[in-house]
Structure formats: structure tokens, C-alpha cells
Amino acid sequence: MLTLKQSRRLTTVLTGTLSWALALLLFFPILWMLLTSFKTELEAFATPPQFVFTPTLENYLHIQDRSGYFKYAWNSVFIAFGATALGMLIAVPAAYSMAFFETRRTKGTLLWMLSTKMLPPVGVLVPIYLLAKQFGLLDTRTVLIVIYTLINLPIMVWMIYTYFRDIPRDILEAARMDGASTLQEIVQVLLPIARGGLASTVLLSVILCWNEAFWSLNLTSSNAAPLSALIASYSSPEGLFWAKLSAVSTLACAPILIFGWISQKQLVRGLSFGAVK
Q1: Topology of the domain covering 68-271
Q2: What is the torsion angle, in degrees rounded to the nearest 10, for the CA atoms of residue 197, residue 116, residue 99 and residue 188?
Q3: Which helix (H) or strand (E) holds 235?
Q4: Residue 206: how many CB atoms within 10 A of its CB?
Q5: By the 8 A CB rule, do 206 and 78 touch?
Q6: DSSP secondary-structure letter at 243?
Q7: What's the pTM?
């Protein structure tokens, strides 16, 4: 019979082993993509797969010579952070009014906003495409910033609304009694208190914008195309070039993976904001 201490130790070992196994399983596609990016096309198609090979930078050099990686990367950065900034400018006042001036229709409005995320993007592609063409916005970063803002706005409002709801109203009432205006109340009192939740909202929005591919493929061609469009350009009817496709995918994923890794503590802290009473 195992003692209580031995039983707990065994449970800890089993839980840790299972967690590492699950983490490796989830990480393996990324690892395989990284390894394939350093292979030649012949090695990438080799059967059985080769785990030992001579690395080459041929694929990365080809991408830069053929496509100009930094142009697409800059488009992704500009669009992701631009859409996030615009979304925050709209979401913060909206969440403030819903959290602190709630009416009987507030919950219904929030549910309606969230329900728009269930709409298939292809269902509104034609009217949005025609509107973008009419206003001369096709293949511009402006149209992607506007679209990304609109599709992520429901989640941003919901998240910020949740964080604001956990802030005691007494703090805001004290600020009003001290003569603070609505703008001062939001900027000087509310935002500093909810900075953890706001940071997590910003991080999530940047990640969602960075990974969005449907609209970038349909509304851009070359000038405003982000990294998601660059990846698609390496898929052709003649066949897939696995080594080059892996290299361009690695280059597209690396910035946001590094950004998420650096910001993970802030993201977890923000997502758990208000969870412990």
C-alpha cells in the first residue's frame, strides 16, 4: 500500500509526464516545420523522413530574393497593431458605458455583438469587396485595418467589459466627487486599475489580426499583403514546395510566437484578472 506522501508524489510525476507528452505532441508540428525549412526539396520529400541531415539556408535566401520578406512583415505589423489601436479606441468607451451605465438591453446588445462572430466571413465577402472597390481601398492596409477592427471588436468589448465589471463603483464615485470629468475618470482612474486586462485584450487582438488569412487573401494582392498572403503564394497548382513553404511559414510564425512568449505572463495575468475574489 502506498502512503499518502508516496501517492501524491506519484500523482505529481504522472501529471508532469502527461503534461510534457501533451506539450510535445502540440509542439511537434512546429518543430517539424522548423526542421523541414532547413532541408532541400529532395530531403523534404524523402521517405522515410530524415531527422539527420545537413542544414541549408537556401530556402530562406530564396524567399528574400523572390518575395522580399520584410515588406510583408511590415504590412503584418502595421495592420495588426493599427487594427488593435483602433479597436481599443472604440472598445474602451463602449465597455465603460455598458459596465457602469448598464440598462436592461446591455446584455442583449453584448450577446448580439458576440453572435456576429458566428457569421461565416464568406457570406459577406461580396458586399465588402464591392464596397472596398467602390472606395478605392482594394489592396490597401486601410481596408484590412477596418475589417480586422470590426471582426475583433465584439471579443475586445466583451473582455474589457468583464474587467471593468470587477472594478468597484465606489472608486469611480470618489473620482466624480473630486471633480473628475468622464475623460479623466477613464484615463486617470479606470485604465490604470484595469491595465492587466487591457494588456491581455491588446495581446489577443494582435494575435488574431496576425493570424487572419481570409480577408488578406481576398482584399489584397501585392502592395498591402501581409505574411498570411505570402504563405499562400508558395502554394501553386503545380504542387507544393514543402521546404520553401516550411521556411516561409517559420518566418511568418516566428515574430508572433516570440511576441507571445515574451508577453505570456502579462497575458495570463490579464486573463485571470478578477477571477479570484
Answers
A1: MetI-like fold (1.10.3720)
A2: 50
A3: strand 235-236
A4: 22
A5: no
A6: H
A7: 0.83
* Domain ranges for the chain: 68-271
- CA 84 to chain CA centroid, Å, is 10
Rounded CA separation 244/44 (Å): 10
What pLDDT digit, counting tens, does each position of 199-217 carry? 889 988 999 999 999 999 9
4 against 203, higher pLDDT = 203
Sign of CA dihedral 51, 53, 55, 61: negative
Q: How confident is residue 166, by pLDDT bands cut at 50, 70 and 90?
A: confident
Q: What is the pLDDT of residues 92-132, one digit of tens each?
A: 999 999 988 888 888 888 888 888 888 888 889 999 999 99
| Distances from the Cα of 226 to the Cα of 57, 120, 271, angstroms | 23, 21, 28
Q: How confident is the model at residue 239, as a pLDDT?
A: 61
The helix or strand, by DSSP H or E, that contains position 191, with its residue range, turns out to be helix 191-193
Buried b (16+ CB within 10 A) or exposed e, 58-75: ebbebbeeebebeebbeb
Please give the distance of CA 128 from its chain centroid, rounded to a whole number.
Answer: 22
